[in-house]
């Protein structure tokens, strides 16, 4: 039996299409698992505030809160059915409350409150839970990449620009570069908390309330940093969704660039890296194939994240700056999809890096012969002959052409090749020795000698990783503090409920 009239002046029930596309999604099992307990927490904080302010009596508050405690014990989803004829989650919960205590008691729960500020508050609480989970997983993934980097400071390879051999680096330095980008990405995600964790409750439908409420009290009991300072803004703002999605989109872009590099390096033509069997798939027809499955899926899912960001902007633009079902109802749906895809990206990257294998011998062999040490060979001529770098650059360019024309490898360059070219181009009698040339051509010595800030020398990369590690530790500390803030708020709420129960007897 439905308790009370939830449709006001409207006489006809919702159309079947409205039930199918609007109401049923709002009371789905997924929605209940995400929101049910947050509705309960909002109700608890609101009722405690109403009693504290003398708006409802202590015995009324106690009866309402007894049912709220019963709902808490139900877990993530309610034990009573969520019925579409009641339109949505809150009316189903209110109907259950009224069925237990009657409309004159249960009907007082919604005093000084609208569904608009309630929805806005629950949505932020729903987002907080998923947001903090993403933060935890993101930090775990970064630590996995850091571990791989620390284990491979000796993995010398050719670096690439324009997908052409550039200069010798180490795989650890490359990982450090990715981790630096991820650190900035995480900072953007972390900073979104400041806009997310603000409390709309008490904003009413949009015009506040004539009741003497205490919004700081409810904000604190729900673990928010502070109430939103304007009632229209409280129910109308969803900019935190755009901020989180924007941060996710930028982070996802870093994922795609990382995956693209690994994707190329995993081809047999390069052969630098191999993904574990657990994250690969064979062809149904070509038995030689080992496709890096997770890398492709992360790239695709990252695009979905960025698509959600664009879609949310389109949903929310040109909407009135107040409560409406475009920005308030449809806008957050993009965020749930983005959270799911972001979580998948992070966990797939984590498992991929945990099992990644490097062919260090092939990396060095390729770097020895693909002319990636030519910049250092030019530096060698500058030091040996006292010439400008531009002069040395021109000499080495002609040396490379000579070697390619004669089908020779970079490691075969010697004085006999360099001397006539230097003489013919600039009249220089080079003083460089074969020993100096071979030193300049050695990719390992080249990479290991770059110990300036940000370089590829193992000790410098370890310094970079140590600095990044401290940053991750600080990020993890903040995440746990935020979890603690929410847990402490729940404990304070429960303590106040028990104190109210004691006063009501």
Automatic annotation (TrEMBL):
Its EC number is 4.3.2.1. It is found in: Cytoplasm. Pathway: Amino-acid biosynthesis; L-arginine biosynthesis; L-arginine from L-ornithine and carbamoyl phosphate: step 3/3. InterPro entries: Arg_succ_lyase_C, Argininosuccinate_lyase, Fumarase/histidase_N, Fumarate_lyase_fam, Fumarate_lyase_N, L-Aspartase-like. GO terms for molecular function: argininosuccinate lyase activity. It catalyses: 2-(N(omega)-L-arginino)succinate = fumarate + L-arginine. It comes from the Bacteria. This is Argininosuccinate lyase. The gene is argH.
């Amino acid at each position: 039996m439905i308790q009370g009239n939830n449709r006001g002046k409207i006489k006809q029930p919702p159309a079947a299409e409205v039930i199918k596309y609007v109401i049923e999604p709002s009371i789905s099992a997924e929605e209940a698992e995400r929101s049910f307990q947050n509705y309960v927490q909002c109700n608890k904080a609101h009722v405690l505030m109403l009693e504290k302010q003398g708006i409802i009596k202590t015995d009324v508050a106690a009866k309402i809160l007894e049912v709220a405690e019963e709902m808490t014990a139900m877990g993530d989803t309610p034990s009573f059915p969520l019925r579409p004829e009641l339109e949505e989650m809150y009316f189903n919960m209110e109907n259950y409350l009224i069925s237990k205590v009657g409309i004159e008691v249960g009907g007082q729960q919604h005093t000084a409150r609208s569904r608009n500020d309630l929805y806005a508050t629950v949505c932020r609480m729903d987002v907080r839970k998923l947001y903090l989970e993403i933060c935890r997983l993101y930090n775990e993934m970064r630590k996995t990449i850091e571990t791989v980097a620390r284990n491979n400071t000796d993995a010398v390879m050719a670096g690439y620009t324009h997908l052409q051999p550039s200069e010798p680096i180490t795989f650890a330095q490359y990982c450090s570069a990715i981790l630096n980008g991820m650190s900035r990405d995480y900072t953007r995600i972390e900073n979104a908390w400041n806009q997310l964790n603000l409390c709309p409750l008490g904003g009413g439908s949009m015009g506040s309330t004539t009741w003497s409420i205490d919004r700081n009290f409810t904000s604190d009991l729900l673990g928010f940093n502070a109430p939103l300072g304007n009632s229209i803004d409280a129910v109308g703002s969803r900019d935190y969704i755009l901020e989180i999605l924007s941060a996710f989109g930028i982070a996802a872009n870093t994922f795609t660039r990382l995956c693209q590099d690994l994707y190329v390096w995993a081809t047999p033509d390069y052969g630098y890296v191999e993904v574990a069997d657990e994250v690969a798939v064979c062809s149904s027809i070509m038995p030689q194939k080992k496709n890096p499955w997770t890398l492709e899926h992360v790239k695709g899912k990252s695009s979905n994240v960025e698509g959600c960001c664009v879609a949310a902007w389109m949903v929310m633009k040109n909407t009135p700056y107040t409560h409406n079902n475009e920005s308030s109802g449809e806008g957050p749906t993009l965020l749930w999809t983005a959270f799911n895809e972001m979580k998948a990206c992070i966990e797939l990257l984590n498992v991929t890096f945990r099992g990644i294998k490097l062919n260090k011998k092939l990396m060095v062999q390729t770097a020895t012969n693909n002319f990636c040490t030519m910049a250092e060979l030019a530096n060698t001529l500058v030091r040996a002959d006292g010439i400008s770098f531009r002069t040395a650059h021109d000499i080495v360019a002609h040396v490379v052409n000579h070697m390619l024309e004669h089908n020779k490898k970079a490691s075969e360059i010697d004085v006999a090749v360099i001397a006539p070219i230097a003489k013919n181009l600039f009249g220089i009698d080079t003083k460089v020795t074969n020993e100096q040339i071979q030193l300049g051509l050695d990719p390992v010595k080249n990479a290991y000698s770059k110990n300036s800030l940000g370089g590829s020398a193992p000790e410098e990369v370890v310094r970079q990783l140590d600095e990044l590690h401290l940053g991750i530790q600080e990020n993890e500390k903040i995440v746990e503090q935020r979890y603690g803030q929410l847990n402490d708020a729940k404990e304070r709420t429960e303590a106040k409920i028990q104190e109210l129960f004691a006063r009501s007897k």
